[in-house]
Amino acid sequence: MVTKHIASPRISVTVTPPQLDRAIQSDSGGCLIADAIKRDYPHLIRIQVDMATIRITDPTRRARFAYLTPPAAQMMLLGFDQGWESVVEANSTITLGPAVKVTAITDSKPRQRKRVERRAELQSKRDAGTLTGREQAALAKLEEVGEVPSTTGPSSVEHNKGGEPPTVHGGAPLPQGPAHPNLLRGRNRHFGAKISDPGVAFREAVDEAVRERLNPTEPQLFEEESPEAGDGPPPADGPREARRRRSGGRRR
User: Fold this and answer.
1) Which residues on adjacent β-strands are paired with residue 56?
2) Contact 48, 65 (CB under 8 A)
3) Domain segments of the chain: what residues?
4) What is the model's pLDDT at position 221?
5) Where is 252: in which H helix or E strand?
6) Average pLDDT, the chain
7) Is residue 178 exposed (0-12), middle (13-18) or buried (19+ Cβ within 10 Å)?
8) Cα(59)–Cα(187) distance, rounded to whole angstroms?
9) CB–CB of 32/47 below 8 Å?
10) Do the beta carbons of residue 67 and residue 48 sit within 8 Å?
11) Lowest-confidence range among 30-34, 58-62, 209-213, 232-236?
């Protein structure tokens, strides 16, 4: 079974001055980039933005796409979090390259059977002329979605041109790690909230170095000097030198 390559949508958004002013003055939180994507691409859903990836779902393509967050978007997220107005500038354009991961939307087999049965029921009502307005809208949506696969299929790699990172199609969805503060994940953002802490990386590196130094199982940084070959063993202490060493070097 060959995984079908679904083209990732090319997304380019601009943060307008009114949008930036509302975000700075608002107390309700929000994400400038996610709001701009939703404004220009209203059909996209489940938009997640952080310092590492930007993830969206396109119901029309029946797939979820994960993009690497471009440097311009990273600077905007960090500047907004830290309250740097000189960094978060209006009319900033953010363009996403090809997605690095494309995962088809799947559904369970029982739900697939229910969807097929419901579509057949509504189609029979339409043929009989007894379809209501609400049922007509539901039938149109079911016919638009069509068949939904139950598995994502095996993964395959598509090599993009222009030095862009490759795209992995199919396979398991791209995992998300713990919500580290420096990822600035989520939509509840506030101007100058200072959630991120760049010093975390430095402190973690120091802690790791200390653990390695104190761990007795680790090899020593400096090996003890050993007598050179041919020198022979050091001379043994006599009774007087041994008593002096035990007494801390004090003479009686």
Assistant:
1) 65
2) no
3) 12-106+151-201, 107-149
4) 45
5) none
6) 76
7) exposed
8) 21
9) no
10) no
11) 232-236
